[in-house]
Amino acid sequence: MSDRGYFVVVCGPDGSGKTTLARVLVDRADRRGKYFHFIPSPPNLLYDSLHVDPALVEKNRFPGSRFLGLLRIGRNLVRAWAAYLLAIRPAVQAGSLVVGDRWLYGYIAQPLALKFNGPEWVARFVLRMMPQPDLVVVLDAPPEVIHGRKAELSIDEIEAERRHWARIVGPTVTLDARRTSAELADETLTRLALGPKFRVYPPGLGHVLIPTKPKAAALVGSTLYTAAHTRGLLAHRIGRGMLRAFGTGWLPMAGEAQVPFEDDHREALVSFIRENGLNPDDIALCTRTQGERGGYSVLVLSDAKPIGFVRIGETGELESECRALDLLDAFAPETFRYPKLIAKSTLGSLDLVLQSVVLEGYHRPPRHPPLQEILAEVQAALGSFPKQPNTPDHWVPMHGDFTPWNLRQNGGHLSLIDWESVEWGPPLGDQVLYEAASLALSRRSPSRSFNSEAAGFWLERFEPAENSRDARLTKRLREVLQP
Predict the structure, then answer these.
(1) Environment class of residue 349 by beta-carbon count within 10 Å: exposed (0-12), middle (13-18) or buried (19+)?
(2) Where in the chain is the domain with CATH 3.40.50.300?
(3) The whole model's pTM is what?
(4) CATH level 2 (architecture), domain 6-195
(5) For the sheet containing 6-11, what is the strand order?
(6) How distant is the alpha carbon of residue 191 from its chain centre?
(7) Residue among 125, 133, 50, 47 nearest 89 (CA)
(8) Can you give the three-state secondary structure of the chain, one letter per residue?
(9) What would the pLDDT profile of 416-444 be if each residue is shown by its tens digit?
(10) Class of the 199-355 domain?
(11) Is 392 exposed, middle or buried (0-12, 13-18, 19+ CB in 10 A)?
(12) pLDDT tens digit string along 77-128?
């Protein structure tokens, strides 16, 4: 065990060995091992050794009242939060290994046992709202093996449970229950110690990964989320408030598949940053919100403060952005701030671009931005940006992704970020995109038609999206731009 504590949940079909694994984990942690079954209950919220309430082990096998089940799951969500704040979180902060048996995940895999007869989407919503563990260990084995240990369950019942446990989302790892409890404990502890130490923010969208601790670093990492519509901005304010109050424990833990680092990429990235005079002690990650775009960004933190921003993409993807930042530096616009290019490097097939940080604290789209002045400076600064062959003579250089999620107000400053889409386009291209995106986000109808050339330019770009992240916004943008 390291100096920091962990919260791990063990679950799986009855007979898979959850109790045995939990006992070994608690024993391995010695005096820092804590255990609870389902939800910690007073007066003894957490136990130093395994304690299973027989009333909870006895399984209900008949559907109860749907109404009572909905009330019960809501009550248990409140109980889970109270137990987390009063017992689990303090124990983890004190360096303990807290092992939970099932937690609330049984509402997905064993709803009848918990007298829940409501729709599954309600259970999944509750699971998203509850405090999140660092790791969920799902024990699994062939149904014949489990049946041999738990003969009162039929093969069909075991198969059904296995399918449901496999659908648990979050920082899960499925381990073979046929292995010895010692081997399972070893792997669990190894994954806790070496696994990704990021939480997913915001919980619904999940493309920003912030450090698990300290709280101040997590709060800084949340600035990577560029909320643009009213609901997103409200959720962002609430989320930042919860980070200040409760830290990151209420956020889902990032799974290995969500962290884009490969092999020794993190070490190479840190070396690149240090070579350029920065001394990082933590990072936050932002993957693409648009499903069709690759790459990701890294916010470099030192002493819980942002000190640098690294854009990472496939070879050649960031060339336009580097040229644009050089041109902006030579022009020095006055109406907006922009990232300063610090250094470039490569990492295998990836390009790394280190930039200065322009967004800190809470930021939002400006309410009444001076679009004409901003776009005049953008065009003037990018006047020597290379043209593609056969570019119409009357076209002008554009930001190319001039939207409310890239034009941000941060205190009394305007900042324009994400310059990788710079290109030449119709004279009103940037302005039409900004106005159309603002309307799409607000769900308002256009009061006038857009410039036909610029609207047609963007309609060609916004093909109907198959990716669920993009489809709704793309559809709305097309509706707004249609003549």
Answers:
(1) exposed
(2) 6-195
(3) 0.75
(4) 3-Layer(aba) Sandwich (3.40)
(5) 33-37, 97-101, 6-11, 135-140, 172-176
(6) 20
(7) 133
(8) CCCCCEEEEEECCCCCCHHHHHHHHHHHCHHHEEEEECCCCCCCCCECCCCCCHHHHCCCCCCCCHHHHHHHHHHHHHHHHHHHHHHHHHHHHCCCEEEEECCCCHHHHCCHHHCCCCCHHHHHHHHHHCCCCCEEEEEECCHHHHHHHCCCCCHHHHHHHHHHHCCCCCCEEEEECCCCHHHHHHHHHHHHHHCCCEEEECCCCCCEEEECCCHHHHHHHHHHCCCCCHHHHHHHHHHHHHHHHHCCCCCCECCHHHCCCCCCHHHHHHHHHHHCCCCCCEEEEEECCCCCCCCEEEEEEECCEEEEEEEEEECCCCHHHHHHHHHHHHHCCCCCECCCEEEEEEECCEEEEEECCCCCCCCECCCCCCHHHHHHHHHHHCCCCCCCCCCCCCCEEECCCCCCCCEEEECCEEEECCCCCCEEECCCHHHHHHHHHHHHHHCCCCCCCCCHHHHHHHHHHCCCCCCHHHHHHHHHHHHHHCC
(9) 999 999 999 999 999 999 999 999 998 78
(10) alpha beta
(11) exposed
(12) 999 999 999 999 899 888 899 999 989 999 998 888 888 988 989 998 898 8
Question: At 418, which amino acid appears?
Answer: D
* Amino acid letter, residue 240: R
Residues of the chain within CATH 3.30.200.20 domain(s) are 199-355
